Amino acid sequence: MNKKLVIDVDTGVDDAQAIMMALSVPNVTILGITCSHGNTPLENVCKNTLRVLKVCNRLDIPVYRGCAKSLLGRSFHAGDFHGKDGLGDAPDPDAPGLELMQKEGAVNALVRMINENPGEVNLVATAPLTNLAMAVKLDPCFPTKLKGLYIMGGNTDSRGNTTVCGEFNFVADPEAAYIVLDSFTCPTYIASWEFSCKNSLPWSFCETWLAQDTDKARFMARIFSHTMKMIQTERYQKELVAGAGFTPCDVYALAAAIDDTLITATDQVAVTVELEGTYTRGMMVLDLLELLKKKHKAFIMKTVNLERFKEMLMNSLK
Fold it and tell me: Does the N terminus or the C terminus of the chain have fewer Cβ atoms within 10 A?
C-alpha cells in the first residue's frame, strides 16, 4: 500500500538522514516538505532541504518556507553541533537556489495538503513544532484529518540535551509543543531523546553505512563529519544516555511512520509540556497517574527492531 507523508523539518544532519530514508522507500509518496526554524536559521534550513533533494535526484518534491521563530519570537540554534549552516559547514558550490522554494507558505501548505488527502497522511515532525501549532490555529480540524503524527522530540526521564531537563525541539518552542500535544487527537507517536539514545547503533555500523560507494553516502560522510567529532567531545558524551552510540534521532520517527512493524514496544500515556519551570521549561511531562484527565494518549516509543532499522538506513544511501 502506498503511504503518503508530509515531513516538517529544520534540516540539520539527522533531518537529512530522515529525508533520505523516506526517499529510498518505493511505496512512500512525499507530498511536501515544510521547513521550520531550529537546528539552523530558516534560510539555511530551506537551502539544506533542497541540497538533500538534489543529491537524491528528487527536486520535484515541493518545499515550503515556514516559521522563522518560535511562537513567542525567541530562537536559538544548534550551530555548534550540526555546523553553522546545519549540514556540517561542508562546502557545496552547486547547491540549488532558493528560487526553487514554493511561493505558498508552509502553514497554509500543511493545511491544504492534509485537507486534500483526509485520513491518508502521516505527518512526521522532526523540528520545533511551530508550523504545526500555527496550522491547528488556522484550521482547528486539521489534526482530525491526519492518519497519524510522528514526533521526534521531548523527553521521558527528565534528561535534557539542551537545558537541564529539556530536549532541543521542545525547548526551542515550548508553547508550540504544548499546543500540539494538547490539540492533536490523531494517533500520536513520540520518539523521545532517551528512546533515541537507548536504541542507538554501534559506531562500527555507522562506518559501514558511510563507506558505501554511492554519491549519497559520500554526501552524508561530508555533512556528518563535523557532528561525529562533536559527539565524541566530553560535553556531548554527558548529554547521551550511558552506552549510546550512533543516534540518528530524527530517523526513528520517520522510520516508524513508514514501517508499522518497526517499533516493538510503546507506552500509551497522556502527555503535556511544562511552560513555566525555572529548570523544566520545555520538558515533556508524562501523566502516569492520569491526574490531567486527558482523553487522548500518545504512544511513547520504547524499543525498536534494530536489525530492520539498520537495513532501512543502509538502503537510504544506496
Answer: N
- Beta strands 271-273; 284-286: pairing state: antiparallel
Catalytic annotation, residues:
10
Is pLDDT at 15 greater than 80 in this prediction?
yes
- Res. 243 pLDDT band, cuts 50 70 90: low
Identify the CATH assignment for 3-316 out of 3.10.129.10, 3.40.190.10, 3.40.50.2300, 3.90.245.10: 3.90.245.10
Q: What pLDDT, on the 0 to 100 scale, is given for residue 82?
A: 84
What is the SS3 string spanning the chain? CCEEEEEEECCCHHHHHHHHHHHHCCCEEEEEEEECCCCCCHHHHHHHHHHHHHHCCCCCCCEEECCCCCCCCCCCCCHHHHCCCCCCCCCCCCCCCHHHCCCCCHHHHHHHHHHHCCCCEEEEECCCCHHHHHHHHHCCCHHHHCCEEEEECCCCCCCCCCCCCCCHHHHHCHHHHHHHHHHCCCCEEEECHHHHHHCCECHHHHHHHHCCCCHHHHHHHHHHHHHHHHHCCHHHHHHCCCCCCECCHHHHHHHHHHCCCCEEEEEEECEEECCCCCCCCCCEEECCCCCCCCCCCEEEEEEECHHHHHHHHHHHCC
Mean of the per-residue pLDDT values of the chain: 95
